[in-house]
Amino acid sequence: MEPVPPHRQQALVERLSRMCGGSFSPGRRREYFISGPQWAAAYQGQALFYAPTREPVTYADVIREFGRLGIGHWTTHDSDVIATEDLGTDRQAAEIERIRTALAAHGVACSMVTTETFFNAAFAAGPAPEAPELREYVRFRVRNTVDIGHELGARYAVYWPGSLGYFVQGAVDEMQSLEWYAEAIDAACERDVEVAARKGRPTLRHCLEAKPFEPQAEILLPTTDAMLAFIASGRLAHPDMVGVNPEYLHELMWGGAPRAALARALLAGKLWHIDINDGYRLKHDVDIAVGMVNPLDWLNVLVLLRSQGFEGPFNLDFKPLRTTSNWGVFAVSFATAVDRFITLWEIAGDVAEDPVIREATDALKAGSGVSASSDAKTLFEANKELLTLHELIGHRLFQILVGLHRGRAVFD
Ligand code: GCO
Ligand code: MN
Ligand code: MN
Q1: Catalytic residue positions?
Q2: Which residues constitute the domain of residue 262?
Q3: For position 412, what pLDDT does the model report?
Q4: Residues 102, 236: one domain?
Q5: Atom of ligand 1 minimally distant from the CA of 116
Q6: Are the C-beta atoms of residues 73 and 110 closer than 8 Å to each other?
Q7: Distance between CA 127 and CA 78 in Å, rounded?
């Protein structure tokens, strides 16, 4: 093949994207409760061993591009859009006005706000540090995020405790830290009750997000299950206002089954928000876009969510690859991530309707009809052939994922 000079490269990517097909219109994309994070779009490709590969982008760029793509919701950290030193000041109020204008101009709604309590040097000792003045600063940040959320019309607030943990054992008192972290969440909820009443708005849904490792060596609340236990611990003043925001990859990172983790959150009535992405088990937080690594697992996750009536928000918390250009972040990363999600969501609908899966599932539940009370051997024999359906269901899910159920020709 001939070399592709720089000025022809975007056209090539565009032509090959069109050849991929399977993309949805912006209007269709807007029918789903999908949100795009400011920080994901603005991620410049940097990491500990990686220099940035992309130019900075502003929230105005991100909101405009989300609007154009049909990503109807936008999410942000407080400090993604307001300089840390401006938080809580008149300059914040002016910036919020500009953000509202940008959102309205592009038909995008702010669905969720989140507090950055990990990046700034003030959080060197995490979001529940020993010094009272640092904890007061954390409370200021979460209260202020609640204010921002109400100003921007959000319905959700997310908290990822980030560095709630330690590098060296014994330096941090786990019990005390967890109690202090509960105080920060209480401060957010209490502010919310006040502001919501003043503004005549519903209170926000406060969602805790866990990650098993990074950025601390050991994490105090590493999994969604740990978050559920924290919510139920009796330490929170408003446990009814607090739920979870599981991130697909974060459950995979500790070796868990994301679908089972989501099921446990659903059982507890606390699944309120999800970060959607992909990656590998027992590895670091690679934040690959949804469906690129584990499409079959994702299909099963969506089958569960659809069957339980969970319809979002689905927050695209991924990192566009470092090899993707600024232009490619919107033209390829976000566009294809949304389209893969919608495709998997629709295929999950096919699973629910599929006659093979339906009959197999019903048959398993009907059992053999043989009553053999405590005779284990007879009970086993009576169900033996029926249980073979488990493997057939697994095969059928594969067929549905690759479209074989729609009559794709078999290979001779
Ligand atoms: C991560 C986390 C974050 C959080 C965000 C919202 O992997 O870094 O998932 O992206 O979701 O801070 O609280
Ligand atoms: Mn996340
Ligand atoms: Mn992540």
Answers
A1: 77, 80
A2: 25-353
A3: 61
A4: yes
A5: 12
A6: yes
A7: 15
- Ligand 1 in contact with 80 (CB < 6 A)? no
Q: Is the CB of 249 under 6 A from ligand 1?
A: no
Answer whether 354 contacts ligand 1 (Cβ < 6 A): no
Q: Is 293 helix (H, G, I), strand (E, B) or coil?
A: coil
The answer as to whether 407 is a domain residue is: no
Per-residue model confidence as pLDDT tens digits over 190-221: 999 999 999 999 999 999 999 999 899 999 99
Residue type, position 55, single letter: E
Q: Which atom of ligand 1 is found nearest the CA of 39?
A: 10
In a domain, residue 16? The reply is no
Are residue 100 and residue 140 in the same domain, yes or no?
yes
Q: Is the CB of 160 under 6 A from ligand 1?
A: yes
One-letter amino acid for residue 166 of the chain? Y
Q: Are residues 188 and 136 in the same domain?
A: yes
Q: Which residues of the chain have pLDDT under 50?
A: none
Q: Which residue's CA lies nearest to atom 12 of ligand 1?
A: 160
99-135 confidence digits (pLDDT tens): 999 999 999 999 999 999 999 999 999 999 999 999 9
Residues 369 and 269 in one domain: no
Please tell me the distance between residue 315's alpha carbon and the centre of ligand 2 in angstroms: 8
Please check whether residues 315 and 362 belong to one and the same domain. Answer: no
Token pair for residue 225? 């299950």
One domain for residues 395 and 290: no
**Cα distance between residue 245 and residue 13, in whole Å:** 34
- The answer on 279 and 268 residing in a single domain is yes
Q: How many A from CA of 219 to the centre of ligand 1?
A: 15
State how many domains the chain has: 2
State the Cα–Cα distance between residues 157 and 196, nearest whole angstrom: 13
